[in-house]
Amino acid sequence: xxxxxxxxxxxxxxxxxxxxxxxxxxxxxxxxxxxxxxxxxxxxxxxxxxxxxxxxxxxxxxxxxxxxxxxxxxxxxxxxxxxxxxxxxxxxxxxxxxxxxxxxxxxxxxxxxxxxxxxxxxxxxxxxxxxxxxxxxxxxxxxxxxxxxxxxxxxxxxxxxxxxxxxxxxxxxxxxxxxxxxxxxxxxxxxxxxxxxxxxxxxxxxxxxxxxxxxxxxxxxxxxxxxxxxxxxxxxxxxxxxxxxxxxxxxxxxxxxxxxxxxxxxxxxxxxxxxxxxxxxxxxxxxxxxxxxxxxxxxxxxxxxxxxxxxxxxxxxxxxxxxxxxxxxxxxxxxxxxxxxxxxxxxxxxxxxxxxxxxxxxxxxxxxxxxxxxxxxxxxxxxx
Length: 384
What we know:
By secondary structure, the chain is of the alpha/beta class. The chain is 50% helix and 17% strand. The protein folds into two domains: 22-154, Serine Threonine Protein Phosphatase 5, Tetratricopeptide repeat (Alpha Horseshoe), CATH 1.25.40; 189-383, Vaccinia Virus protein VP39 (Rossmann fold, 3-Layer(aba) Sandwich), CATH 3.40.50.
């Protein structure tokens, strides 16, 4: 799934009195592809004035408006594009994605249904329709589409994870391509959605706990930020650490982190694989904010963190609480219907003991507010 509207294909030409020329289209499209959205909007608006029955101009106008953050306004142009070009997959996909961004899920579903009828084997179309069905609680229909997706791409970890999450299957961690695809799409909206809509403040809370734990004079930490995302942890820790290295699976998220200019090095990789390439006792502090929710079984991760930490080094992380402690026969973590993992206190304490950590802090907190409900979790600090 992509949040950016598609405007690359020329739709089938209907019998219309006037069509814009390829040259005129290319000028407007080039503005859009270069990120010159105001120019793209003006150029495409000119196309709709001169050629009001040409769906391409309306499609590009809607895309340019949406990319400037005016999704509701974009609907009108996108509806015109869909009306004028009923066999244009992109037009209906764009309209569906815009409705989804506005939480108009029933409208989004109808648009995605039509798009998939036009282009039945579209992987993006299958993902989009399945996702919007899932968001509406239509689990059976969503699973059927994810399974159809998996039949076309049998190794697709994104579909595998979503099927597991919806059917109650238990897995040890989210596949790498699920994480990278999810956050590549999410990158542009991540900060605003997380800190605004979801009231997320874990990086600042962890920074405050670390200062209290280590003392105000501790400012020379060599720090590794696991799953650094757009760099929210980096911003929170910058005043109290000497240097920071960040690692994340999502290239788009790393682009945002790089722009913050608080990391000395950024690596695109799986966190365990990245740590395995680092020299032992390289860091004073390892941070994992909202990372272990995508890694259910933490044994290997914690083992590598311990290898990298210097004596008295700290591991600071957040988890979603597994409140109903599992029986001794289970692993101490669970994949939830959200697609995220939670861990039990007993499991964490066992890991700390096995790897030679002392538990310094376990601080209950609300990690975020999701659909109006607080998500309960804990901020944890261990010392090597």
